[in-house]
Amino acid sequence: MVENIKTYKVLLSGRVQGIGFRYFAESVAGKYSVKGYVKNTPVGKVEILCQGEEEEVGAFIDEVRKGPAFSVITDIVNQEVIDNKIYNSFEIKY
């Protein structure tokens, strides 16, 4: 149901690049049936756009905030965004 679909943008700071964070996020997204994307930003952060049922997205964000081994997350900002696009998969953007 489209009315139950929520979209959030999550921005993670710290040691989040070069340690497999994008692959970790992709794996967690599959676990929770979350769609969207993950990408590195030019300023050393990881940006995630995640879309799905509110409960699934919440569980995804909770798990992603723990990060993979060797990550050190110093800050996480997540906010609901209005996005009319419906994502069909979760992808790693390069």
Automatic annotation (TrEMBL):
Signal peptide: none
UniProt name for this protein: Acylphosphatase-like domain-containing protein
GO terms of molecular function: acylphosphatase activity
Domain Acylphosphatase-like: residue ranges: 7-94
PANTHER family in the cross-refs: ACYLPHOSPHATASE (PTHR47268:SF4)
Alphabetical list of InterPro entries matching this protein: Acylphosphatase (IPR020456), Acylphosphatase-like_dom (IPR001792), Acylphosphatase-like_dom_sf (IPR036046), Acylphosphatase_CS (IPR017968)
